[in-house]
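Archive transcription. Copying these from loose printouts into the bound notebook so they stop getting lost. Printout 1 of 2:
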Amino acid sequence: MYSLRKFARRTGTIGRALPDPFPVFAFHRITFRHGATSMIAGNPGSFKSIMALNIMTQWAKAGLSGVYFSADSDEFTVARRAGAILTGDAEELVEARMVAGDGGKYAQALTRLDAVKFVYKSLDIDGITVELQSFESVYGAYPDFVIVDNLMDYVDSAGEWELMRTLTRDLDVIARKTTAHVCILHHTSEASVPAGVVPPSSSIQGKVTQKARLVLTLAARGMSLEAACVKNTNGPQDPTGRTTMQFFVRSSLRVDDVSYRAEM
């Protein structure tokens, strides 16, 4: 049994908010917290990974450490995208210069992400745990955040929904044990809504949102991006996905917060 007045000794950073990646998130009380899990979901092409990389970049700039599990991509792709986001150069230009051996500018820019480590392989929960324990052994503390891109790549079969539900529960345990924030990327059903329409909570494949405290769904039309907060245990939510926030994805893959400027 516990006395609530002594919570600070036991919980440490659990429940404390990470920096707001976008002003519109703060405006709508969308908060990523230590010791909790979140989910970003959408159809293929909805900029899930781009949104996650932008969020990661903002957290790294704020001095946070992290581990990005990227079984859905490779090191060159992640470096190219992150280099574009950090410098503001168009992604095509970044790739051309990197391929030509003229990537010094981007190598220098990427040092701003040195506190974030990347793992480019599919792992089960034991493998993820080992990587986080290794991080703690080297740096003396667990990371502030963990991003898993994406859920489908960390189970044996895309159709094994129960395995996905188990993995999300296990990741939630990791969040609480390490006090890291764990953000999971996942797919929505392409048949559930027309292209370009933000999916509701019911569209998330496998119904794997039970443990996540915060769930965002995304939809893209060209380079315009809309997001809805369909689950939020600490603020407003709209499971239908009709209440949306507007963003724009620049050629550099920087995500520009459009709706907050309009709301001011």
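Printout 2 of 2:
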Amino acid sequence: MAAVPKTLNDHKWHETYPELGTEPIPIEPYVSNEYFDRERDLIFRKVWLNVGRVEQIPKPGDYFVRDLAVCKTSILIVRGRDGTIRAFHNMCAHRGNKLVAGGSGTCKGLFTCKFHGWAYGLDGSLRHIADEESFFNLNRQALSMTPVSVDTWEGFIFINVDGNPSESLGDYLGEFGTGFTGYPFSELSATQFFWQTELKTNWKVIKDAFQEVWHIPSLHHKTIPNVFAEPANKHGHALNFKLYARHGQISLPGNYERTPTTVEKFALRYGSGATVI
């Protein structure tokens, strides 16, 4: 475990960033539907969103779907015949039917809509229209799948649902991205074991919970009680905290020189096959 700072409370971060203030935060941003609608329009529909890794689609034709409820859309990410990664709104241009149900796989031919059989290539172009002779003045190019801006950084795939993004992915990541450029993310193993749950709550409640480990001794005391804490730092106070113009970075202590709990053993056994260090 890393050396514990002499100051075992987080007052010093407020001294570093006094603009954050120390007063209670307002509740409106967490409960107001109008506030959330503004966040949806000004944040989620404008910024670059991480949707996956390049290892998920290593070969031409490989694809996966990301349903983005916060943007009210579904995104199809696919590697083309030319090796290029592209992203599209997962929607047939004919009646707006969802083109691919979800999940991931390999498309060996065309993405075909199950409603009327319209079919699209890996590049999003419209390749087949059932009973095409019955239509008037068709413009196939205008009926292609709607593209979504996509870019990669260190193997991470990002998309931007804004039709004309105001900034590049590099500009969006800024100093945060520069600081981690070159890190061997591709050498890390990714688990295929996961679980999910739906909570009826504002997204910032979830985000706030993962900005600290203060809750672990209370909430997870039977499962992972001392992963991020030890007697000298029992509340898991941060070792370092840094704010950038658009992002933030936090360093937390990790207590790995111990016997894993039953829950951790189970997760490791049915997860990626990783070993306890």
